[in-house]
Amino acid sequence: MRMTVGEFEREKQYQTVMHFVRKLLEEGLISKEEYCQIDTRNLEKWEPKTGSLLSGKFLIYAENRANMSHGKEACAYEKDNKN
Fold it and tell me: Where are the alpha helices (DSSP H) in 27-68?
């Protein structure tokens, strides 16, 4: 999939903002409902090409990386090796 410069900039803006919004959610500073509201507004504002495909998927968590057995193994590893 090719993106124009404008599409790339919109995607970058969306992903950057949502990175910080996810941090707020992880730290308990906003609720899941607030997260979803912010995500919806940002999807409407920036209209990212791939943003809506990944919307609500926290890829930093092993359970969201794959739907095959190695996803379960990653979850178990991360659970046992948390700092």
Answer: 32-46, 51-54
The Cα 22–Cα 26 span in angstroms is: 6
Cα–Cα distances in Å, from 4 out to 11, 19, 39? 11, 22, 23
**pLDDT tens by residue, 29-77:** 999 999 999 999 999 999 888 765 655 555 445 444 444 444 455 555 5
Q: Which two tokens stand for residue 46?
A: 């920036």
CA distance 35 to 83: 26
The whole-model pTM stands at 0.61
* C-alpha–C-alpha distance, residues 48 and 79, integer Å: 33
